[in-house]
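fyi for ur records
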Amino acid sequence: VQLVESGGGLVQPGGSLRLTCEVSGVSVRAQAMSWVRQAPGKDLEWVSGIFRDGTNTYTADSVKGRFTISKDNTKNTVYLQMHNLKPEDTARYYCALGLGTNGSRGQGTQVTVSS
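which gave:
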């Protein structure tokens, strides 16, 4: 299984980014997926998850209303759309198998929110 995240970068507070996770070795059609993040000096934090049916999603309170997870089964890809970014969203973001923080994940993509 390989998970490759992209789309991170430096953005000003209030800005938006869309993260992409290209998955190989497993079908996202048959697999629940999550986005997790880790800020410097902090534990890994679960951000959002999507059930394999694609219709049920869950989002952490800290990002609710600002972040949206989705997937494209035909591209075997998972996305995280992030709006109204805040400095406290600064972290390395990882795509992960399953609905928690324990699943296999990729190398991550860095998101930095700063003016």
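The mean pLDDT is 96. thats all i got for now
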